[in-house]
Amino acid sequence: MKYLLFVVCLLPIAVMAQNDKKLIYKNSSLSTSARVNDLLSRMTLQQKIGQLNLITFVNENNSTNPLDNKVMQAMLAEF
After folding, report:
1. Is residue 46 in a domain?
2. CA distances from 48 to 43, 76, 79 (A)
3. Residue 40 in domain
4. Is-contact 35 27, C-beta < 8 A?
């Protein structure tokens, strides 16, 4: 029983140690092309399509102030 408890306590530490290496797309010393290729290879098709469908709302003064929910819903309904 003590062995099982030891293994269960040690497992999260081992998992965190593996995630400690820096991901390629987060390494700012590498080229932009290498970082973009790494990030795109990690993304699912659904995530890539979601990035294409991002919507930016700009008010009349060309600044990005927060919009209230009713205005946002009306703008999204037009799409």
Report:
1. yes
2. 7, 20, 19
3. yes
4. yes
Asked if the structure places residue 48 within a domain, the reply is yes
pTM equals 0.46
Asked whether residue 5 is assigned to any structural domain, the reply reads no
- Among candidates 21, 26, 28, 22, which has minimal Cα distance to 39? 26
- Diameter of the chain measured on Cα atoms: 67
Domain limits for position 69: 23-78
**What tens digit of pLDDT does each residue of 38-62 get?**
999 999 999 998 888 776 666 666 6
Based on the structure, what is the number of domains in the chain?
A: 1
List, as one string, the DSSP characters of 8-69. Answer: HHHHHHHHHHHTTSPPGGG-TTS-HHHHHHHHHHHS-HHHHHHHHT------TTS--PPPPH
